[in-house]
Amino acid sequence: MNQTRTTPATGHPLGRLGAVVREGGAVLLRFERLYDAPAADVWSALTDPGRTARWIGSWTGDPASGSVLLSMTAEEGAPGERVQVDRCEPPTRLDVTMGTADGPWPLTVRLTEEAGRTRLLFTHRLAEPYDASAVGPGWHYYLDRLDAALEGTPVPDDFTAYHPALAESYPVPAA
Q: For the chain, what is the domain count?
């Protein structure tokens, strides 16, 4: 895994922060992570229900039908979220749309393998009103959980270490 500095106040790795960018009229929340694992292993952690349960949640249904129901691990008591599979190209590309109470969340994951290491690019296309201060720490938390799942270490379970602590780390750039 990457060597990174940490913020003195929170201890969170600075190199793991996502970024909010404006691109082609869209506001995107992006995260990039690098893993010491082949793309097929990272893909499995992203899509295999036996592995997703450890870091994001369990899902039911048949992805070939175009949608599954995701019950997020850290969202106790919340109803499952319908996830529409928009595009799936194992082991390099997954585009989904999560149905949430805040409206649809278009998400993309791209994996590229370089010399046995895999680069993950996660993008969430935000809708107005752009609230990256809440969404950014949330995805940061879940991606840190993915990191731990891939490394075989304990997954973070204290969301308060992420929000509100990292809220100011995800400002929306001016238009």
A: 1
